[in-house]
Amino acid sequence: MLKLYSFGPGANSLKPLLTLYEKGVEWEHQFVDPAKFEQHSDWFKEINPRGQVPALVHDGKVITESTVICEYLEDVFPDANPLRPKDPFMAAQMRVWTKWVDEYFCWCVSTIGWARYVSHIANKMTEEEFENHLKNIPIPEQRTKWRRARDGFPQDMLDEEMRKIGVSVDRLEETLSQQDYLLGDQYTLADVCNFAIANGMDMGYPELVNEEKTPGIMAWLTRIKERPAVQKMFAHTKKEDLGPAKK
Ligand SMILES: N[C@@H](CCC(=O)N[C@@H](CS)C(=O)NCC(=O)O)C(=O)O
Questions:
Q1: How far is the CA of 39 from the centre of ligand 1 (A)?
Q2: Atom of ligand 1 nearest to the CA of 64
């Protein structure tokens, strides 16, 4: 039994969704509704005490951390459309890319996303609702992030994160202007994990990601979106189709 808990096709949740569709295995999806803060509910924290998605449950065992989930799926289903190079050196290069997403690229995009979008959710609550809600958030750093989403992020922090987004875009373009995928010809978890964060940047950051400045990234995004598994995933994994999360 394989069950994924996720916010649907975006950011960290997108990584295992893409991997599961590429693998074509039997699995079940449970949508965790961020609008209802279901990631901080007691039932979900029993699955992931950190109160974050995605989380995978396989035969009663819980696997967390989006990139780790993808590697786990690769280990359990190695023959179904391999997404990790067999060559140890190339596998190491893949992990340099996935580590970079998790430690650098994802964070700057996330902070700007919180300032732009999560701030609206945080500001809809009354002071009392907000303070009560904070008590359900298990990670102290996430509590700070929620507070900043409500009160405003320091401008120097936003400037620095925007600078890092620029660095990230340049790094991706440098490679993708020369080859189809991040490791060359093979589509791997390096692409899955970077795509999960980069998808939509042409709309969110049109001044940075566009046909003129970053043709390599644009072609790579299109190439990935044209993959049958990716098309199927986006067609099937709509938030509204999944309904509210149930225990
Ligand atoms: N390092 C974790 C990060 C997970 C994460 O940040 N999840 C976000 C969604 S992309 C989340 O659950 N945010 C809700 C919250 O923290 O309140 C991973 O890669 O899985």
A1: 9
A2: 20
pTM of the complete model beyond 0.85: yes
CA atoms of 244 and 117, how far apart (whole Å) = 21
What tens-digit pLDDT sequence spans the chain (247 residues)?
999 999 999 999 999 999 999 999 999 999 999 888 999 999 999 999 999 999 999 999 999 999 999 999 999 999 999 999 999 999 999 999 999 999 999 999 999 999 999 999 999 999 999 999 999 999 999 999 999 999 999 999 999 999 999 999 999 999 999 999 999 999 999 999 999 999 999 999 999 999 999 999 999 999 999 999 999 999 998 664 433 333 3
Q: Which ligand 1 atom is at minimum distance from the Cα of 10?
A: 10
C-alpha 110 – ligand 1 centre gap (Å): 9
From the centroid of its chain, how far is CA 109? 10
Structural domains of the chain sorted by starting position, each given as residue range(s) with its CATH number in brackets = 2-83+232-242 (3.40.30.10), 88-227 (1.20.1050.10)
Report the run of H or E that residue 147 belongs to, with start and end.
Answer: helix 140-151
Dihedral of alpha carbons 56, 192, 9, 203, sign: positive
- Work out whether strand 61-64 and strand 2-6 pair parallel, antiparallel, or are unpaired: unpaired
